[in-house]
């Protein structure tokens, strides 16, 4: 049995992959921006580490982060749709 | 002292749910049945056949463990806002993995890789780097399995079970639970936790929704919960707060980022991802899994509710234990039958990740230690058999760990586990995009960061108990007076060594190892043929959907 060891003889040549089409740079840039936004918003902690304004009794610190759970999920979904369209099979 | 009052209703409901789950676990062997489970792709990856919905439940059950559901509110209960880092952590992890998981899935699908260390082996042609990655995963996973037991223990303790004089009787429920878990994991493999995850998640969602709708009304509303929690936290030493102060900003951000980067380095996360059927499934789930993060945020707030309700967290040993806060809150405020449902949810919540983790550890050991070092000629059937036995041993080890050693030791190891796991990030994630890094430089960076991170974590002294491993944040070198997550500082060191090492090794023309992968492999999808260097040709055409040729 062939192992992954580099010096063992190569196994019978497998059929080549028919990979998905690689998205072009523009598509990747847009998707990238959508995906980076949550990092900026949530890692900039001093921008939201405060009590007011409150919403339904929740300090800003809490409802803002809950809001970002939803926003981030939405942005990720949009990125998914964009990339999937671009990756359609050759 | 905690009274040894056993609530019969609670115990009956927990036992009934547990029985249901055990039946499901064994029945799972027949679910999406394969011709034979005598192959690691079948036993250890569920036939690589899971679609979006199954994966959502499986990953949800895998990543959001019972320990998380106990520990996060416990941290809120003890320290306030610091514990809420779990929310930004579990938000940014998804955009992050969106970028690299599809590539990992594709290359693993194409080459039949079962573990992250398999990929490292193929990518860098380096046995030592692959074994380093495998050992890191094993080392971090074992205590994590043990911690799942701590989650069950907390529930049992509040339900009044245990704490009698007889050590054997105390631990009996835990032993029974684990024996059943071990048995159905052995027979059904990854299909068992995938099926049980449905029950676990539905229970957890139900319990948390009821809790956040029902408890605030009883406690005087959300505004009052936050205000009274703030007052209570002000009396703690060190003082806590519901909003992080200036000193808490950096630890909060670095913990969120470092934990997010480390999460999908864990073998059990990758096992769940590789069990999916298509390249797209992981990416689609990146947009759907935040539903669990919402849940985790609400669970975190239960810790503040426990402060408002002034629950008693004194355990059987007479000492306060913040991990009892949420179970006790349920017991105090819910009717018995619903407390039973809630406790069952937490207990089952421990079984799903424990099963997946033991499978992931077994896969790692079998592929990257057993076959690599001991039996290069092992057949797929032998691999599957070894993995099944190892999954049993791993669970026994976890049980012994929890029952014989101090529980804080398991917690310390889990803290270290996060620090360690992040150190395979350069080899794994950067390796998915580039072969620029030299294999020995990556190994040197990993080794330096492992030592640095462990020493740093050891030197953190808990301000109240005076013990080592007192937390996961320490002063960041070169950044005056700022504290940060040790895993992340170790990661920066790791990267620096890897970059400098690569430049030096290239100048010296040290061999870079053979790359078994090709650029197209990182974009392949389900109907592409498997480049089957790791399997017997006879088996490549049988059974699972992964072998369908396109």
Q: How do you describe this structure in short?
A:
The complex is a heterodimer of chains A (90) and B (550). Chain A has 90 residues and is an all-alpha fold.
What does this protein structure show overall?
The complex is a heterodimer of chains A (90) and B (550). With 90 residues, chain A is mostly helical. Chain A has a domain at 34-86. Chain A contains two helices and no strands. In chain A, helix 1 (25-43) packs antiparallel against helix 2. The longest helix of chain A is centred in the last third of the chain and has 27 residues, at 60-86. Chain A is elongated and about 60 Å long. Chain B is mainly alpha-helical and 550 residues long. In chain B, a hairpin with a 7-residue loop joins strand 1 (473-475) and strand 2 (483-485). Chain B is built from 22 helices and two strands. The longest helix of chain B has 39 residues, at 336-374. A two-stranded antiparallel ribbon of chain B has the order 1-2. In chain B, 68% of the residues lie in helices and 1% in strands. The interface between A and B is large, with 52 and 73 residues.
Overall outline of chain A: elongated
Overall radius of gyration of chain A = 22 Å
Q: Which architecture name of chain B does CATH use?
A: Up-down Bundle
Q: How much of the residues of chain B is beta strand, in percent?
A: under 5%
Overall geometric form of chain B:
globular
Low-confidence stretches of chain A: 1-12
List how many beta strands of chain A DSSP finds: 0
Low-pLDDT ranges of chain B = 533-550
Number of strands of chain B: 2
N-end to C-end Cα span of chain B: 66 Å
**Average pLDDT of chain B, to the nearest integer?**
85
Give the largest interface pair and sizes.
A-B, 52 and 73 residues
Structural class of chain A: mainly alpha
**Number of helical stretches of at least 4 residues of chain A:** 2
What is the top-level CATH class of chain B?
Mainly Alpha
Main β-sheet description of chain B: 2 strands, antiparallel
Largest sheet of chain A: none
CATH topology of chain B: Sodium/glucose cotransporter
Distance between the termini of chain A: 34 Å
Identify the CATH homologous superfamily of chain B.
Answer: Sodium/glucose cotransporter
Order of SSEs of chain B:
HHHHHHHHHHHHHHHHHHHHEEHH
